């Protein structure tokens, strides 16, 4: 039996494949455990905007019988200070030590969504916000995406690949794609962290300069040639991320890395995947996104069962 205390990374999960299977079973019977969370409350704390994470996690909690409270942090609450020993005489009114302890009095599980600064690599990869909540909350903490990881997304993506794979060991390509603004590396980092543990042939494709942090990319087959990567692929996961090397920068690249029908024709009837939100005709063309082989809505649906599997494990083993 799996024991989840917190869920901030695949490293918190003893058996990732078993968690995917639990998510798959919950999808068949979403209300099978609707008494498990009775009289328990999930607090969802958002430091950033969200559509899918916010709604799917709330549906997951309600399927388990939980109450849900949502806070838009900083906008709805006092501004939080995370550093120790600070003289709090500026614009931050409340320290994480009190805030995390206080919300733990009202909620039996917490979810936290934060983004990186994309200006300070050391600070972002230090994950101060999520690790501070884990440190100072007295209840389990779930990452709803942190500065460098998005584990619920990757769990849903693995489930989606399991459901659609045409062969036992499909070829899965994570391809960098263009975007006008600097975006986090979190989805890509997590995708590699999780899918390298899955029964897939994993390939990473990106232009020079977009190398991911070595702790995620080491050992993954990597190419700067997108067309070569797409040949024979069963799944094409497109995602933009800003540079890790030139931290947070959008680099000039000559090649067009947008996914279109011509590129998808190189695959083995490949499915298109993206975590959403996606910029149409920048990351991917309308034809691919609206086509029969697009899985983006299935991925979004599976966010419910990913969150539900995580919550179920936490509720089954929580002391609260
Ligand atoms: N994929 C994802 O996390 O979407 P949101 O940012 O809308 O939650």
The poorly predicted ranges are none
From the coordinates shown, what is the CATH architecture of the largest domain? 3-Layer(aba) Sandwich
| Rounded Rg | 20 Å
User: What's the CATH first level of the largest domain?
Assistant: Alpha Beta
CATH superfamily of the largest domain: Aspartate/ornithine carbamoyltransferase
What is the tally of helical segments? Answer: 12
Number of domains: 2
What about the largest sheet?
A: 5 strands, parallel
Bound molecules: phosphoric acid mono(formamide)ester
The amount of beta strand, in percent, is 5-15%
What is the fold-level CATH name, i.e. the topology of the largest domain?
Rossmann fold
- Ends: how far apart? 19 Å
Average of per-residue pLDDT values: 96
- Give the strand line-up of the largest sheet: 9-8-7-10-11
Helix content: 25-40%
What order do the helices and strands follow? Answer: HEHEEEHEHHEHEHEHEHEHEHH
What overall geometry do the principal axes of the alpha carbons give? globular
Structural overview:
The chain folds into two domains: 154 residues, Aspartate/ornithine carbamoyltransferase (Rossmann fold), CATH 3.40.50.1370; 148 residues, 3-Layer(aba) Sandwich (Rossmann fold). It is built from twelve helices and eleven strands. Helix 2 links the parallel strand 1 and strand 2. The strands form three sheets. It has a five-stranded parallel β-sheet. Strands 2-1-5-6 form a four-stranded parallel β-sheet, with helices on both faces. The chain has a two-stranded parallel sheet with strand order 3-4. The mean pLDDT is 96. Helix 2 crosses helix 12. It has 320 residues and is of the alpha/beta class. The longest helix is centred in the last third of the chain and has 22 residues. It binds phosphoric acid mono(formamide)ester. Phosphoric acid mono(formamide)ester binds next to helix 2.
